[in-house]
Each structure stands twice: as structure tokens, then as C-alpha cells.
Amino acid sequence: xxxxxxxxxxxxxxxxxxxxxxxxxxxxxxxxxxxxxxxxxxxxxxxxxxxxxxxxxxxxxxxxxxxxxxxxxxxxxxxxxxxxxxxxxxxxxxxxxxxxxxxxxxxxxxxxxxxxxxxxxxxxxxxxxxxxxxxxxxxxxxxxxxxxxxxxxxxxxxxxxxxxxxxxxxxxxxxxxxxxxxxxxxxxxxxxxxxxxxxxxxxxxxxxxxxxxxxxxxxxxxxxxxxxxxxxxxxxxxxxxxxxxxxxxxxxxxxxxxxxxxxxxxxxxxxxxxxxxxxxxxxx
Length: 284
Description:
Strand order of the largest sheet: 6-5-4-3-2-1-12-13
Structural class: mainly beta
Oligomer: single chain
Largest sheet: 8 strands, antiparallel
């Protein structure tokens, strides 16, 4: 993770806060990015809330004919005592991110019944120093079998979108945080070189088509790839590249025996260096 901090403030929706997510609507045949911007405050449900505007920049798969679609739907959040809440668009707030949680703590997924069946469990916490300044980091697990996510204070989840109501919707097109910025912080996901509006997304294929097996694993994992050469880069939870390997064929077994246990982000590049996938692998 690349962060540049200039002050100690660590809350939520600071001036200029902007998130950029991958957009991948498989059934509709469109791809691109979605930008979410903090555009101001409002009063909602008796609380001061932040208003987040969404804008999609998408094109038909196989083209670069990008069209800008400003959404009429706004995300509303509020921040209180290390918790980010999201408005359910009816009459209540749900917990979106709990930055102050400890290992073993759980919170119900936003928009789902409060029966504990779909909840996020905190597996690990740490304080990440960025230019000597601390950011809270949580590793969270949804129900068993769902991808584990990393949540950073101020930034949110690296996989989970700010619209928590779509977290467990299988055909939701928004997936994977690519970039975040505000007046004091910049974050760029490993392997992403352009945080522009369309992020040079031509040819991007989401990592769900290149899932590592087994995950979690121990000393290695295997990826099934499209034909042709690829490069696989592995990054630890701090964003430091710990492994890079060139793969000539359509199947790759990555030796991770020299790495310590933990969570890793992998980036898959094609022979021309274009980003083809991103995902998380956990070494037990």
C-alpha cells in the first residue's frame, strides 16, 4: 500500500475523499470503473451524515467506448466512535466498518437480518505506520467460504464497496478498490499504475476467473490462466512486493515456502504488462 500522510487526522470522509472501484458487469457485457466522491454533509435520521456520489465510467467489453453515467443513488454514511454506519435507505443505520474492533469481534453485514448468520469476524488487527503515522488495519472474514478482506481506517475495505447492501449480491458489478485519495492520503492498490478516471482498464479480467487453489494454503498455490505468458506479483499486507515470477504457460504453481504466514495480495499481468487480475491469498 502506498500512502502519503501529512497530518494526524484519521476519521472518515475528509475533504476530497474519493474512491475508485473496478466495475465488472459480466451479464450486461460492460466493464470499467466506478468513482465514489464525498460531496458534502446532510442531516439524515437525526444525525449528521456524509453524502457520497457515485459515477460509473463503463464501456462494452472488448471496446474502449467509455461513457460516463452519474448515478442518481447516493450513499450516506455517518461516523461515530470508530464506527462507520451506512443508511439503509429506509429508516435506519447499519454498521459498515468497525475500526475499533478487536480479534474475535463481529458485526452483522449491512442490509442483512441481525441474526448473526451473515456477519464479519475480525481475525487480526494491527497498526500500520505510513510515514510514521498510524492507521488501523483489520483482517475480516465473512461467512466461511467467502473472500477475506482487509479494512483500513479512513479508507475502508479493499474488496467491500461502500454500498454495503451489495456485499453478498452475486451479480453486483462493483468490486475491488483500485485507488483512494483525499487532501492528505493517497492509496494505490498493488500493480495499479494509473489512478485516472478510467484507469487504463482495457483488457482487465477480474481475478475471480483466476482464483488461487488452495486458499488458504501453506507452501504453494496454483493458478489456471489463459494461454500465453504471464507475470505474477505477490504483495504482503503492507503493500511490499515479496515475490515476482514469470509464467510461460496456462497453469502456474507458485512456491511460497520462503514466506511467513499471513495475508497476501497477488497481481496477475499479461505478457504486455497489462493488469489481468487481482486477488487475495492467505498462507496459514
